Structures are given as C-alpha cells and as structure tokens.
C-alpha cells in the first residue's frame, strides 16, 4: 500500500499510530519526491546510498556509476559530516555501491574476496563512522537506519555472534542475531536488554527509527511499527565514536549493505517520527531471497563456470534483474564424486565412444524415461546433497551450457536424446526437492561443435522441449556460433579469428553469453515465482535475447529477403564479416539426416529495420518448399563480431535500468540474431 499525506512530508495517522494507506505498493522502490531533510527539520546528518551519487570519490566528487570505489558517504544534510569507513585494523576497505538491492534502489558496502565465500562477500573488518556525533547515554538523540544483510557473517572468526547495527562509544545499542542466534533484534544488549523482534531472517532488509532521551528512555520502530517503548539504557555514561554496522572490534563489521541513515541531536516528536517512517516506506523491507544456480555440463561448462567467471556473472546479472540480495553458483568438477560437471561426458554415452552417465543407458532398449542416474548423475546428487538446507532452498535455476559430445550423435537419436534429457532434468529437480516441476532449466542454442546432423538434432531437441511450457525450459542464449575458438587470435577490426581450440569457446565469449542471458533468465525466474524485490521487468529489456527470423522470401534463385522480428531493439546492424553473408546457408533439397546441397551466402545487406537481403553463392535448384534457410548450418562458425545484431545498446531505458551505470559499460551489448534451431522453409511470397 502507499501512504496518504495530509501535507508534504506528513502522512495521515489512523488510530494507534498506524499510517493511512491507499493503494498497492509498486513492485520496485523509487526515489521519493520529498527528501528527508524536507520531511523532518533539523537533521544533523543524512546519508543516502540509494543512488550512485550518495558515495563520493577523491576530491569529494559524487560518483556517477555503481561498482566504483568511493571514499565516504556524502552528508546530504549540508552539515559536512560525511560518513567515513571505519576499521579497528590498520587499514579500511573502500566502499562501493551496488544497484537493485531494494527494488530499484541501491546501497553501499565493502566488497571482499576469498575462496569459499557466499556472494556478495563483504569485508568482516570495515563499517561506518559518523563524525562529530555527540550521542551518548546522557544526551537526547534519534537515529534512522536502513540496511540489508545478504548472508550470515562469514570469514570473521566470530561468524555465529550477533552483528551490531549501531554502537555508541564501546557500547552496542542495537544487534541482530547471526547464524548462531534465534532471529532476534536486541535493543541495548546486556543485562537489561530488550528483544525487539524474534523474526529476523538470514537475508533481510529492515528500517529502524530509534529515539532516546535520558529521562524517558528509548522508543524503537521496526519497518514502521513501534516495537519498543520507554526502554531504559544504563551503561556507564560515555561518549565516543558512533559506528554503524560495526561493533568496534577487529572483525566486528556487520557485513551488510547500508542504504540510508540519519541522525538528529534531539528526541524526535511523535509527529516527526511518523514522518520519518512514512519517508522510509520507499524501501522494500522484510525477508529477502538469494539466487543460487546449479550448473551441469562438460568441458565448455567447466570453462564457463570455473575458468572464465561467466557463471558468477550470470548469477550477478540475474540477481540484478530480480532484485535479489545474494547470488551463488554450484559448479564443481573432479576426478571422483561429488561434482556437477565432467569433461567430455554427454547426458548418456555416445555410440562414437564418448562416455556419459548423467543418466545410465542400460543398452536393453528400455525407454530413457525409466533410466536411473549413472555415475555422473550420482556425483551431481552428492554435490547437491552436500549443500546446507538454507542454500538448497535458494536453488532457483538449473543451467546447461552444454552440448559438445551430445552434438556428435546421429540425427536419428532425436527421440532417445530428448527423452534422456527430460529424464535427467526430472531427476535433478527431484534432487532439489522440486516436486512441482517449477525450477527452470536454462539451456543454449548449441555452440558450433559436432556433426551437422548431430548439432541440428541437438538444436531441435532444445527447441522442442522449450516449446512445451510445462517443462519450464528457457533458452538463455539463442545464438552461440558468433564466438571464437578458445585462445584464438582475433582481429576486432575484421572479425577474423585464426588458430585456437575449436572445440571450446573463448573466455570473452563465455562472459558475453552470460551477460546476454541474464535478462532472459531473470524474466523466466520472475514468471516462475522467484522474484525478490523486482516483480516485473520493463518492456525495453530483452525477452528472448535478440531478434528472430520469421519469414524467408525467395526473390530469385540467388536472392532471399529475410524478415526479422525484434525483441528489445528496433533496428538491424550488419557488421564486419556479416556483410559477406557469414553464417547464412540454404539446404537445397533433402532434409536433416538426409542432407541436400548446402549453398552458402556471399552477401548480406540491410534493406530496412526488419529486412535483410541475402545473396547466395550459387543458384538454388529445388522448389522453395524443398529449401530451408539456416543461420548457421550445423557446426559452421560465425565468429565474434560477425553476427547480425539489433541496436539494443542504443535503446533508451527507463529510470533505474541503465546497464552502463548499474553493472558497467561491458554489459551494454547489442543482441545477436537468433540462430535457427530448425531450417526455415523458403516462401515464394513476399509476406
């Protein structure tokens, strides 16, 4: 619901201190039209990390993008009290901001690195210090704080101990239980502490207003509801540093995102406290979610997930699109169980000698729908079973950057391979406790490796399964042939790649695949009920990942006119080798498994925003109904930079959805023209 105001900054009260509401809340938080200093006068300090400019860099210049190191949080009250990093160690980490932590609003924290840490990992040593604060047991004061915790404490040496949200001098004022507690929010921890709440979750966003005076004690509001009244505070009178999200010890950081904070050097009136609560309604508070992705596959999946960082990029991007606080992946390989990926292994063994036992082909002619897990599948089962229950509950997508040896199969294996893939998918979902068949599978249009018949079979299986909406399969990358052999030498001015390992995709391409897939996967998760603080995406974001071919007109025996339907762009680009027709080919007669003559294109020209003209190397011999356009045919490689693309990078996005600002300029990509899963039959009519 939204607040009713009786005047600017003053929400209506409707009995028992409750705020008047009138309409459903928006799916994503937004910047209020009235600032906090306009809402309540006399603010001694106000720090707002909801936008990049809340952080300042060298020279005290507000930052203009997220994920950039800053030096402090700007005091937007005008009093010059910038909120500085604090650490009890010799140095403090640098703060960085991140977007979409509470709807479209962001926050600031201190990112950290380390093996085995859940993401985002935050520094266990650094929090924030409010300069010049005189708050103490002997003075009147009010603090407002909004924070998010993405994970339990980790890598601190005291991971099970509570986190401190606010401390004055050496005295903690407010603490939240970590993994070793019982979900408590505790005011004035110690002998006379008051438990304000017992429902604080592992991942959460909350706001508090706490006002104090020596004569009446402390009142506290949690997410707009009064949760404590007239609580006495009786430590030895002291003054000292006011710390936020830190307790003053060496590894005493709360490892939380700071969204917003403010201080008043007085105990606010009820009316002022209510006004602050109304203003704080822009934050989406309560229990929050994490994104956990499970990866299966073979060597290209291993490169993607473990060597190139693409799995982490995909998880980060998906978290951005659904507004989740945490993002992690389960992707491991080993010579012995447990593991989730194994080099060279297909879903089941191939007749050409490649192994594979994610499901075990019994060789007795039995239906794949009855096959059990083989050694590879049991290794995946062990890896999943080793997840803590709370992490297992976060698994929301299965990702298969996978086709290699499965694309070496005969075209006639279509039915067997499709049934085996569905069988393994159902068994993986069972491992995850997904009895409702709800967790989506993310697959890709096959990379250019395999035989022509095998890769066509694989692409058609993926297309067929994805078309069955009950299977919840989404094609994360509709084009992967626009990629280079791993380790090849590539000239970005020509698009020509030489050398390298043709069986494996280049690191830059795997990362690009992840960034292109993120909005598609995010949209699928929202549709399947896995949204967090963002429950709908703008229509300007990709829905399937790029434009698609809808019609092919045979203008002459050597000229085709291709009609394209756009996804998130509205124009076509024909870069580099795309102008030579790279990737386009027609099967002149025949059919998959019984191929006709393959006629390659020698030219591609843009006619207008939705049409391309393709010129073929030789004239077609068969009638149009016996000819099919492929883009590309079989394992043909288009190479990086040579695919037809849309102009998505130039499309103006709504406020709060700037990829360059939010995730980085490398995320601003044009979307490639979708590869064909099946050949598109030529038409003798122009429309």
What overall geometry do the principal axes of the alpha carbons give?
Answer: elongated
What is the percentage of strand-forming residues? 25-35%
The main β sheet shows up as: 7 strands, antiparallel
Q: Roughly how many Å is the radius of gyration?
A: 29 Å
Number of strands: 39
In DSSP terms (H or I, runs of 4 or more residues), the helix count works out at 10
* Helix content, binned percent: 10-25%
| Terminal-residue CA separation | 49 Å
Task: State mean pLDDT (0 to 100 scale).
Answer: 94
Instruction: Outline the low-pLDDT stretches.
Output: 1-27
- In terms of structural class, how would the helical and strand content be classed? alpha+beta
In words, what does this structure look like?
With 687 residues, the chain is an alpha+beta fold. It contains ten helices and 39 strands. The strands form ten sheets. Strands 3, 11, 16, 17, 18, 20 and 21 form a seven-stranded antiparallel beta sheet that branches. Helix 4 runs parallel beside helix 9 (507-527) and helix 7 (414-431) packs across helix 8 (452-467). The protein is elongated and about 95 Å long. The model is unreliable at 1-27 (pLDDT under 50).
List keywords for this structure.
687 residues; alpha+beta; seven-stranded antiparallel β-sheet; 10 helices; disordered N terminus
Quick description:
It is built from ten helices and 39 strands. With 687 residues, the protein is of the alpha+beta class. The protein is elongated, with a radius of gyration of 29 Å.
């Amino acid at each position: 619901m939204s607040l009713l105001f009786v005047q600017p900054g003053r929400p209506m009260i409707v009995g028992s201190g409750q705020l008047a509401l009138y309409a459903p809340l928006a799916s994503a938080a937004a910047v209020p039209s009235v600032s906090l200093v306009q809402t309540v006068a006399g603010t001694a300090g106000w720090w707002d990390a909801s936008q990049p400019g809340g952080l300042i860099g060298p020279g005290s210049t507000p930052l203009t993008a997220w994920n950039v190191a800053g030096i402090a949080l700007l005091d937007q009250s005008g009093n010059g009290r910038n909120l500085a990093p604090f650490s009890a160690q010799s140095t403090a980490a640098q703060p960085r901001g991140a977007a979409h932590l509470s709807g479209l609003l962001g926050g600031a924290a201190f990112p950290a690195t380390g093996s085995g840490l859940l993401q985002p990992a935050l520094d266990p040593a650094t929090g924030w210090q409010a300069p010049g604060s005189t708050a103490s047991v002997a003075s009147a004061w009010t603090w407002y704080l909004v924070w998010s915790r993405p994970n339990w404490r980790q890598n601190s040496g005291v991971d099970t101990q509570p986190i401190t949200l606010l401390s004055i001098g050496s005295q903690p004022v407010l603490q939240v239980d970590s993994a070793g507690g019982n979900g408590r929010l505790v005011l004035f921890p110690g002998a006379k502490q008051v438990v304000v709440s017992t429902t604080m979750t592992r991942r959460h966003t909350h706001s508090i207003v706490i006002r104090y005076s020596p004569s009446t004690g402390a009142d506290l509001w949690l997410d707009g509801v009064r949760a404590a009244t007239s609580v006495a505070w009786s430590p030895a009178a002291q003054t000292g540093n006011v710390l936020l999200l830190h307790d003053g010890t060496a590894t005493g950081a709360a490892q939380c995102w700071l969204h917003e904070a403010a201080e008043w050097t007085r105990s606010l009136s009820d009316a002022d406290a209510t006004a602050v609560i109304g203003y704080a309604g822009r934050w989406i508070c309560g229990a929050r979610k994490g994104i956990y992705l499970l990866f299966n596959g073979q060597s290209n999946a291993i490169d993607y997930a473990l060597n190139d960082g693409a799995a982490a990029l995909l998880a980060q991007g998906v978290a951005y699109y659904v507004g989740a606080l945490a993002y992690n992946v389960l992707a491991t390989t080993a010579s012995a169980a447990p593991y989730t990926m194994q080099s060279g292994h297909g879903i089941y063994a191939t007749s050409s000698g490649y192994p594979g036992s994610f499901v075990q082909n019994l060789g007795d002619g039995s239906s794949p729908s009855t096959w059990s897990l083989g050694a590879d599948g049991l290794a995946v089962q062990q890896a999943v079973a080793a997840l803590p229950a709370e992490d297992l509950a976060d698994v929301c997508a299965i990702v298969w950057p996978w086709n290699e040896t499965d694309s070496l199969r005969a075209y006639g294996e279509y039915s067997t391979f499709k049934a085996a893939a569905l069988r393994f998918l159902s068994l993986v979902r069972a491992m995850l406790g997904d009895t409702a068949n709800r967790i989506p599978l993310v697959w890709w249009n096959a990379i250019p490796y395999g035989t022509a018949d095998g890769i066509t079979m694989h692409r058609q299986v993926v297309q067929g399964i994805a078309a069955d909406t009950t299977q919840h399969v989404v094609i994360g990358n509709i084009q992967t042939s626009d990629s280079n052999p791993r380790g090849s030498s590539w000239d970005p001015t020509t698009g020509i790649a030489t050398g390298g390992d043709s069986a494996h995709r280049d690191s830059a391409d795997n990362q690009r695949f992840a960034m292109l897939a993120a909005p598609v996967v995010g949209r699928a998760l929202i549709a399947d009920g896995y949204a967090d603080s963002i429950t709908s995406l703008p229509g300007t974001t990709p829905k399937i990942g790029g434009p698609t071919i809808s019609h092919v007109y045979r203008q002459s025996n050597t000229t085709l006119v291709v009609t394209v339907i756009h996804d998130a762009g509205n124009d076509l680009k024909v870069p580099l080798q795309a102008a030579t027709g790279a990737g386009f080919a027609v099967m002149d007669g025949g059919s998959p498994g019984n191929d006709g003559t393959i006629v390659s294109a020698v030219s591609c020209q843009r006619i207008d925003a939705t049409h391309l003209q393709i010129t073929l190397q030789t004239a077609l011999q068969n009638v149009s109904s016996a000819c099919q356009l492929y883009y590309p045919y079989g394992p043909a490689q288009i190479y990086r930079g040579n695919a037809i693309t849309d102009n998505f990078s130039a499309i103006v996005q709504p406020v709060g959805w700037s990829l360059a600002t939010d995730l980085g300029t490398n995320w601003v990509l044009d979307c490639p023209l979708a590869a064909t899963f099946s050949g598109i039959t030529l038409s003798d009519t122009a429309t």
